Each structure stands twice: as structure tokens, then as C-alpha cells.
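testing teh design pipeline on a random one, pls ignore if ur not involved
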């Protein structure tokens, strides 16, 4: 009997970390191909790029009738790029507070400010 349990252990693959495997019903194993002209392909890729999607994700959403994200205006993208350093500085300051250097920084104020920056980011990206 020990042999069969040892065999079962050997058969069972050891999880090496990373993302857990999806069930067979959730796996996307089927692939569909479509032939496009060079111009159609460029147009399709440009559309995916403006929506910040991969071409395969755009195709899946269109085929399944799922909602497409709103394109992010260029002005908003640039504004967020300008705000990224501020958000990083806030995160750094919050870490300082958490590690005991809170004599000059109010943690709740920083956390509220960081959340406000996150909210602003969502608004700029059109995620709301």
C-alpha cells in the first residue's frame, strides 16, 4: 500500500509558486485566427493601443459584446505622469511613519493624501 501512496505523491506535481492553475472551464485554450490586410492590421492595433488593450483583448471584448474602456485623453495621461513622483514620495513618507519615524509626519494625513492621489488617478484614467 505504501507503494501506491508514494506513486500518488510522485504523480502529484509540486506547486512551484506563481499564479494558481485555472480550472479547465476557465482556461482559454481555444484560438481563433483572422487574416487581415496590412492596413486592417495597423488600424486594429492602433485602436487597441488607444484603448490601452492588447489586440487579443480588444478582439475578445468585441466578439463577446463586452464593454470597451474609454480612451484616456492625452492630457490626462500626461497629468498622471506628472503626478507619479508625488504618489511615490507619499508612499515613501508613509513607510517612514510605519517604521517609527513619525515624529514630524502625521500618518493619517499622509494616508488620506495618498488615497486622494489614487482617486485622482482613477478619474484621470477614466476608471470611475
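output:
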Amino acid at each position: 500500500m505504501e507503494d501506491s501512496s508514494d506513486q500518488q505523491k510522485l504523480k502529484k506535481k509540486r506547486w512551484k509558486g506563481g499564479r494558481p492553475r485555472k480550472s479547465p472551464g476557465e482556461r482559454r485554450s481555444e484560438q481563433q485566427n483572422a487574416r487581415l490586410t496590412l492596413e486592417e492590421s495597423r488600424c486594429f492595433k492602433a485602436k487597441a493601443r488607444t484603448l490601452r488593450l492588447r489586440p487579443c483583448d480588444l478582439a475578445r471584448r468585441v466578439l463577446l459584446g463586452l464593454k470597451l474602456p474609454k480612451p484616456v485623453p492625452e492630457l490626462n495621461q500626461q497629468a498622471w505622469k506628472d503626478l507619479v513622483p508625488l504618489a511615490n514620495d507619499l508612499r515613501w513618507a508613509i513607510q517612514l511613519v510605519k517604521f517609527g519615524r513619525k515624529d514630524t509626519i502625521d500618518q493619517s494625513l499622509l494616508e488620506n493624501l495618498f488615497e486622494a492621489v489614487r482617486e485622482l488617478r482613477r478619474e484621470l484614467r477614466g476608471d470611475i
